[in-house]
Amino acid sequence: MHPIPSTTLIVGLGNTLCGDDALGPIAADRVQQAVDQNQLTERHAIKVLQRCAPTPDLASELSDARRVIFLDASIDGPDDRVLLRRLQETNAAESLGHQFSLGTLLGLARHLYGHAPEAFAITFRGRTFELGDRCLTPEAEAAVAAMVAETLRVIASETVIADA
C-alpha cells in the first residue's frame, strides 16, 4: 500500500526561449520565491519543478505528491484571465506516444506507482511562442502575478473549486 503523501508539487511547464511559453517556469520560480519568503513550508510541504514539457519520468514525482499544480501557457482559453482546471487521469496504456498529456501522466503515475495526486492546471493564453523570443508579452507578464496568487490559494485550500 502506498503511504498517503502530503507534498504539493508545483510544475512549471514551458520553454524559456519561446516567448510566452516561458510563463510556466517563470510563474513556478515566483511561487518558489513566495513560498520561501512567507515560510509556507512550515505549514505545507511544497516542491517546485520546472520542465519544458510533461514527460514520463515525472510520474514518479507525481506519485509522491498529494496534490500537483501545473503552471503553463496555453494556446486557447480566455484572453483576460488565468484559468484553473481540475485534471482527470486518462488511461496511460492507450495514449503513450509523442503527445504526452497531463491526464496521461496522472494515469501513468497510478499505473506504475499505485497513486495519482489530485491535479490542477493553472494556465493563461499566450500570444507568442516563437523560438528566440526571450520576453513575455505584456499580457503574459501581467498574468504571472495572478498565476502565483491562484497557486498559493490552491496550496492553502483543502477544497478547490476549479473553472472547469
From TrEMBL:
Q: What InterPro entries does UniProt report for this protein, alphabetically? A: Pept_HybD-like_dom_sf (IPR023430), Peptidase_A31 (IPR000671)
Q: Which Gene3D superfamilies match?
A: HybD-like
An annotated GO BP: protein processing
Gene Ontology molecular-function annotations: endopeptidase activity; enzyme activator activity
Q: Which NCBIfam families match?
A: hydrog_prot
Q: Identify this protein by name.
A: Hydrogenase maturation protease
Please name the source species: Stieleria maiorica
